[in-house]
Amino acid sequence: MTAPVVDATDLRIWYGTPRGPVRAVDGVSFSVGRGEILGLVGESGCGKSTLGRGLLGLLPEGAKMDGHLGFKGEDLLAMTPKERFQRRGRDLAMIFQEPLTRLNPLMRISEHFVETLRTHHPKMSAAEIENRSLEVLRLIGIPPSRWKSYPHEFSGGMRQRLMIALALVLRPAFVVADEPTTALDVLVEAQIIKILHDLRENFDTSLLLITHNLGIIAEACDRVAVMYAGKIVEIGDARTVFADPKHPYTRELLRSTITLATDGLHSIPGAPPDLVAPPTGCHFHPRCPDAMEVCRLREPAIRARGGGPVMVGSNDVACWAATPEGLTAGETAPLVREELSVADEA
Amino acid sequence: MPTKPEASTDSRAGTPSGDDPVLRVDDVGIHFALRGSGFARLLGRDTGVVRAVDGVSLDLQRGEVLGLVGESGSGKTTLGRALLGLVEATSGSITHHPGDGAPATDIAALHGRALRRHRTKLQMVFQDPHAALNPSMDIETAVGHPLVIHRRASGAELHERVVAALERVGLAPAEQFLAKYPSDLSGGQKQRAVLARAIILDPEVLVADEPVSMLDMSVRAKILQLMLDLKADLGLTYVYITHDLATAKFFCDRVAIMYLGKVVEIGPTAEIFANPRHPYTQALLKAIPDMDPTTVMGRDAPRGEIPDAARPPRGCSFHPRCPVARADCGWEPRDLKALVEQHWTRVPIADYERERALLGGLSDLDHSEHRAVVKPRGGSVADVGAVFDRIRDEKAGEPLWQGVTATRATADGLVFEFADATAVPLRPSGISEVACVRYPLAGDPAELGAEAGRQEHGPRQVVESPG
Amino acid sequence: MKILLAPFRNTTGMARWLLVSGLALVALFVVMAVFAPWLAPYGFAQNSVDGVKFEKLVPPGPGHPFGTNDLFYDVLSRVIWGSQTALVVVLLSVVLSALIGVPLGLLSGYVGGRTDRVLVLIMDALYAFPSLLLAIVFGFLLKSVLPSGVVAAALSLTVIYIPQYFRVVRNTAVSAREATYVEAARALGASNSTIMRRYLFSNVIQSVPVIGTLNAADAISTLAALGFLGLGIQPQEAAEWGFDLSRAMDDAASGIWWTGLFPGIAIVLLVTGLTLVGEGLNETVNPTLRKRRFSAVVLPPAAVPSGSATGSTTGAEGAAS
Predict the structure, then answer these.
(1) Is A17 touching C (CB cutoff 8 A)?
(2) What's the rounded Cα separation, in Å, for the pair C188 and C191?
(3) CA separation (Å) from A89 to A58, A94, A176, C121?
(4) Second label for B118, Cα 20 to 30 Å away, from A173, B241, C64, C190?
């Protein structure tokens, strides 16, 4: 198996606030292989956007990151800011959520591409810039006749394609897409997801797709990581996780999702925790239908589903109920807890 | 597990299938004038009109949940606001038939104080819970404010009614929430407060504009369940505006699909989803992502995007994107231009440069007349013809060519004649109504409509039940 | 009220320093103004005590810590009484201009249309005039009409500040009126005046305290300028620093420094104090200047929870025990 393009171990990203540090990302480990699409799914406040930005080093002032973050074998966190800056754009790219606000309304599309390419390849000729850009635009489905247009002359979906083209024109090895279709209509979303899905054929790019929409994950991703309160609770092959989710949160999330086949409403009681002072032990235990005594006391170990060692690319879950090997009887007793009051409902 | 109440056992005033409309929308049009360039305004030239809603007629039956489904630009939000009079209807009428026997009134004709008084019967729930509450009003004041505005209660009675409303929406114990400000609440709690504020006046109709699309998945179910409970308890009628077909299927009794200001299909929910007729409806259903990762990516979306509402396509607005369009759907020169641009995304850059030098920027195709003239900029008319032949050969089934009645080479350039467009109002087809030239089909309409739907729709998706 | 005081409480860092030092300076003058009758050794127009006339232009020394000026007045007393005048006039004018400018701005921003265009035109015209010139013109006009010089001065200052409140509140109102909660208020059936009072007002006045303090600073110096030009308040009516400065100009040539220095320092200190308060508030209220208050965070060494290791199989067993 080829080495992963990106691998993260025990990554933590904390912000300081007057109330105390916010543990936005609290010990996250994963890897993304070459040409692989990893979906990162979770609800608002789980830390997935922070993680995406942290991978590219786009965190705001005051946020601190530690752990191990490797890109093609190099340790990104050990680098100087300048070295990281050089890799940004060229090797690591990002696609944002709102395409309108990310394009400069005063610059033509051609000027956007010139700026992007010249930053990393200062010696490139104008003709070559145009050729390369038009190639990418062609693959994305934007007619070359729009080369000199302004961003406002494009519709929302076209602008998102432009953003994707801008991200890809440098042929990065790794792209983070942060909710790329949330602001778009469903028909346009289908087009964009198809483009992202086909990236690896055209560009051999690895993609981290961050979203709260499980349907997109099922469609386009090879592997999926489910995040809750700053931690990855389950990670593995998309088919396996969807067919047989081991973590109660993953199960509940799947059940709460309203699809065309839904005939009854299901929700998770309670609300996501405060990241300044998350619950002890497993962060999900106050809301978990399978909670046991040990869940309140100790954070669950990340273990491979169905036994075996935790390896890069394996299917892992962090849940005592799912992997109770080695626990005492007292620890596996169902958790006695106070009823979630109605006031705690989201 | 809470389930959707069955229509027959529900205790509501009147049944949705009966003819007891609480709102009758009659040929409503809502047009916005475009502010053109200063120069055009100076010359007094007409700068264009956006037909946000273009001739919509429907009845809202008492006690039902009617879904208005469409993408952005479909006009569903504008129509929803017009039902409350928040947006002025340029033409048509919106008649409210109150349940208590009071006389019917045309909301579109009301203004000022009369309109404001009417707002006690019709209320609205907004999409963004974070923006729908006044940041400087605490919850007690905000939720009770409708009663204050309409002088329905004050003092102790006001307090009691606010507490009752808060408890009803699940913000209990109410005392905990009275002094809080919106910034202290979560998204779901804010939406509950908005619902409390909407129901405190005991309205008849609630227009819900995407009430759950900005909430997380697990919270959506809670709010939708709350809305269902409120409907059952208070005998409300809902207009549910959304772009999410999955929640519409669960929540609504009838669904109206809107595209560019018109209703293109309307019918009972079960029928719309089992036998979608209009190609746009079919496309929307196919576009819903399949939750089963084992199926291969099947969503092929129709090409292009929703067009500019200020310059809608001729004939049927959906025809440029429709995979099964016919000759009389309203083909026009702009479609030809789009076709050439798509062709240019497929050919090598060198070919593009060559063809562009020949054809120019195609700006003379930017109109909706019956005839298009393509002048060669750097070559002969025969060259232009060759390019179009190539385009035609590339994609055999392209519907546009059916709409081209004649092609002639003249001294000016290559001339294309387009067929007339057939006007298409909403027509019954089976138990739905569709605005498409293809329906009703000859023979048994219900049967054939269903047949067509099933063929093009694709396999049903099933959520894998967890182990 | 809470909305107005909120910026005072939310300041941090540099902004807090500005605010605190500014407030300290302003407090000094407020104390002087309020307790003037007790603090000042003599009245502001007092040129004798017990029948004995003061000497003219006496340098600072016993009996007259700041000396006397050429009108036989005690300079220290003039400075202390002058703070009362300054603060009264400025408070009056700033409050009046806010009372006029804010509602007009709210109305104009919310209602739009022709009302808005007319009001904006008027306000822009006023704003385009150099403020001092405008104050002088009004000072001239009002002097003959009004008996009280203090009120006349206050009113001349009022007019020049109205446009500032108007503009800021109008612009905020124009964007706030598009907000969903305003539309929600209309959907509830609220009348326009209710919407403006209950829904828009508290949300558009966040900038008003900043403008108020900066206006006050400007007003002090404009008042002094008016007094300097002899258009303000007469010396018998009240003490006014600008007037004293104008008299002190001739003295400077003859080496008499105390008649000009002390009133001058008073002006500088008060204006500086008010400006510091204004800038300190501005840092907090103005979102573009405000830096995100993320404090530094120290990550504790990664606790190794049982088994949360990378690729280690023994971690899992280590959990049990």
Answers:
(1) yes
(2) 9
(3) 12, 8, 11, 49
(4) B241
> Between chains, do B132 and C180 touch, taking CB under 8 Å as contact?
yes
Count of CB atoms situated within 10 Å of the CB of C226: 28
Q: CA-nearest residue of chain C to A231? A: C308
Q: Torsion-angle region of residue A74: left (phi > 0), alpha (psi -120 to 50) or beta?
A: beta
Domains of chain A: 1-91+172-270 (3.40.50.300), 105-171 (no CATH)
Burial of A141 (0-12, 13-18, 19+ CB in 10 A): middle
Beta carbons of B61 and B85 less than 8 angstroms apart:
no
Q: How far is A84 from chain B (nearest CA, A)?
A: 34
Report helix, strand or coil for C48.
Answer: strand
pLDDT at A209 over 50: yes
pLDDT value at residue C140: 79
Report the pLDDT value the prediction gives residue C288, as an integer from 0 to 100.
55
Q: Which of B170, B187, B297 sits opposite A220 (nearest CB)?
A: B297
State how beta strands A74-75 and A231-237 pair.
unpaired
Assess B131–C contact: CB distance below 8 Å, yes or no: yes
Phi (first) and psi of residue B304, to 5 degrees: 75, -170
For residue A283, give every residue at least 6 positions away whose Cβ sits within 8 Å of its Cβ, in sequence order, or none. Answer: A228, A229, A230, A231, A273
**What distance in Å separates residue B306's CA from the closest CA in chain C?**
25
Q: Is A188 in the B-facing interface, judged by CB distances under 8 Å?
A: yes
Eight-state DSSP code of residue A59: P
C25 contact partners, CB below 8 Å, separation of at least 6: C269, C270, C272, C273, C276
What residues 194-213 of chain C have any CB closer than 8 A to a CB of chain B? 194, 198-199, 202-203
Question: In the CATH hierarchy, which top-level class contains the domain B6-35+44-283?
Answer: alpha beta
Residue in chain B closest to C180 (alpha carbons) equals B132
Query: Do the Cβ atoms of B221 and A243 come within 8 Å?
Result: no
Is it the case that residue C143 has pLDDT exceeding 80?
no
Q: Which residues pair with A211 in a beta bridge?
A: A41
Chain C neighbours, 3+ Cβ pairs < 8 A: A, B
Contact B136 C203 (CB under 8 A): yes
Nearest-CA distance B222 → chain A (Å): 6
Flag whether residue A145 sits within 8 Å of chain B, measured between CB atoms.
yes
**Reported ipTM:** 0.86
Query: What is the spatial distance between Cα A195 and Cα A270, in angstroms, rounded to a whole number?
Result: 37
SS3 state of residue B228? helix
For CATH 3.40.50.300, the residue range(s) in chain B are 6-35+44-283
Q: Say which DSSP state C54 is in.
A: P
Give the burial string for B55-81 (b: 16+ CB within 10 Å, else e): bbebbbbbbbbbbbbbbbbbbbbbbbb
pTM value surpassing 0.80: yes
Per-residue pLDDT of chain B (467 residues; tens, 9 = 90+): 444 444 333 322 333 456 788 999 999 999 988 776 556 556 655 567 888 999 999 999 999 999 999 988 899 999 999 999 999 999 999 999 988 878 888 988 888 888 888 888 999 999 999 899 998 899 999 999 999 999 988 899 999 999 999 999 999 888 989 999 998 888 899 999 999 999 999 999 999 999 998 888 888 989 999 999 999 999 999 999 998 888 999 999 999 999 999 999 999 999 999 999 999 999 998 888 878 777 766 666 788 888 888 888 888 999 999 888 888 888 988 888 888 888 888 888 888 888 888 888 787 788 878 888 888 887 888 888 888 888 888 887 888 888 888 888 888 888 888 888 888 888 888 889 999 988 877 655 554 444 444 444 444 333 333 43
CB neighbours (10 Å) of residue B301? 22
HEC letters along B453-467: HHHHHCCCCCCCCCC
